[in-house]
Each structure stands twice: as C-alpha cells, then as structure tokens.
Design a protein that fits this description.
The complex is a heterodimer of chains A (about 100) and B (about 140). Chain A has about 100 residues and is mainly β. Chain A has strands at about 5, 10-20, 20-25, 25-35, 35-40, 45-55, 60, 65-75, 80, 85, 85-90, 95, 100. Chain A is globular and about 30 Å long. Chain B has about 140 residues and is an all-beta fold. Chain B has one domain. In chain B, strands 2, 4, 5, 7, 9, 11, 12, 14 and 15 form a nine-stranded parallel β-sheet that branches. A six-stranded parallel β-sheet of chain B has the order 1-3-6-8-10-13, with no helix packed on it. Classes of the chains: A mainly beta (about 100), B mainly beta (about 140). The interface between A and B is large, with 40 and 35 residues. Strand 2 (about 10-20) of chain A pairs antiparallel with strand 2 of chain B, so a sheet runs across the interface.
C-alpha cells in the first residue's frame, strides 16, 4: 500500500508534498511533489505540475512533469504537458501532447 | 532497470495522507480519509475521518460522517456521526456531532455541541419551571 493515496471519490485542490510515494485514483488540482514514485491510475484526473522519482500514468494528466528517473505513459493515458526525465516510455494507445526532454 | 515504478493500487474510494506527506488546500469528496501526515486546509468528505497519532490537521472547517482523532486538530468539526477523541489527541476548536466521546489522555479546548435530551432537573424536558425558561445549557452557544 502506498503511503499516500487519493481515492477515486476524493478531490484535493492545493499542494501535496511528500517524501514517499503517491497514488492518485481521484482528482488533484494544484501541485504534486514526491520524493518517490507517483502513480496516476486509470480514471484519475490530475491538473497539476508533478515532480517525483518516477511517474506512471494510466489516467488523465494536464501539467508539466519532472521525474528524476523515469516516466511511463501507459495505454489509455491522456497527457497534456511537457515531460522531463532521463527515461520516457509512451505506450501504444497513450495520448500525449507536449514536449519530451530526456537531456537530464 | 530502475525499479522505482510503483505497482501499488488504491483500495477503492478512501484516501490516505501518509506520515511523510503534507497537503495544503481543500480536500473533499466521497470516501474515508486517514490522515497520518499534515493537512492545512478545509476538509469536507462524505465518509469517516481518522486523524492518526502523529497526524495533524489545521482547518477552518472539518465536515465528515464520523471523526476519530488521535493526533492534533485545530479547527471546528461538524460531523453527522460521532466524534471521538482518543488518548493522545490534542484538539482546539468546536466539536459538533451526534455524540462526542473524549477518552482519558485526550486534550481538548473548545465547545461541544451535540444533540441529546437533557434530564428534567437540568431544564431539558420541563423547561417551563425554570426561572428564565431559556435554558438548554449544554448546547447554548
């Protein structure tokens, strides 16, 4: 179980900061900063700039992303924003609009 | 391969703010909420709120079904269900709920407002034989 979980029915409007990992299944608007992994599940809506060690997206994300290690945009994800990470994967069936910067 | 990828999944509706996490802003929606970290901002959930030992909430208004506090809370609580302060809780604010329980070892400063019938000798049922007839002392604000 992740340290911080935003469940499917929950909305957070504001800033979330943690030294651990985060799973978003609900809605987050604002800013998300984690020291470890961030997972945006299928059905989740995130309108925020996201920073973390790694990021897995299966839901909807609008905002810029910076990851220390890697970013994986999974099938069914919808991402609008710029992605900055050393390793980036975009799966078949992922929607993506924005720039990728792998010169980290 | 780096394996920092998380494979954890949320277990349904509820939310959890981990001990290393801090939220500044408003949290609302359906589902239970467990706070082990820090929350600054208003809470309005249709579900049960638990502030664990070590958790802290600073808020103008907290709305939930039942509320269990083992950590620190600053702000007014309005619960549709019971409110319980367990040992180690530090609460400053007004509490409203269907019932309020304060365990030994909890610290509380504020007003309690819960609906219950007062016994007649305190002016609850037979209000007309009181001197001023105004009284429901325990719930007066």
């Amino acid at each position: 179980m992740a340290s911080t979980v935003i469940g499917a029915g929950i909305t957070i409007e504001g800033e979330v900061t943690t030294d651990e990992d985060v799973v978003v299944a609900g809605t987050l608007r604002g800013k998300l900063t984690a020291k470890e992994g961030v997972t945006i599940e299928h059905g989740a809506t995130v309108e925020a700039d996201v920073a973390g060690a790694s990021l897995v997206v299966a839901g909807s994300l609008t905002g810029n992303v910076t990851a220390a290690e890697r970013v994986d945009l999974q099938q069914g994800s919808r991402v609008i924003g710029n992605v900055k990470a050393a390793r980036v994967t975009i799966a078949d069936g992922a929607q993506f609009k924005g720039n990728v910067d792998m010169d980290v | 391969m780096a394996q920092a990828r998380t494979h954890t999944r949320s277990d349904g509706q509820g939310a959890r703010i981990g001990s290393a996490a801090r939220v500044r802003g408003r949290i609302h929606g359906d589902g239970d909420l467990l706070v082990e970290g820090q929350v600054e901002g208003d809470l309005a959930i249709r579900g049960d709120l638990t502030i664990a030992e070590g958790g802290s909430v600073t808020s103008k208004a907290v709305e939930a079904q039942s509320v269990t506090i083992g950590g620190t809370l600053e702000g007014d609580v309005s619960a549709t269900g019971p409110v319980r302060l367990v040992a180690g809780a530090k609460v400053r604010g007004n509490l409203r709920g269907s019932a309020v329980a304060i365990d030994e070892g909890a610290r509380f400063s504020g007003q309690l407002d819960c609906e219950f019938d007062l016994p007649p000798e305190l002016g609850g049922a037979s209000r007309n034989d009181g001197r001023d007839g105004r009284g429901r002392p325990a719930t007066r604000r």
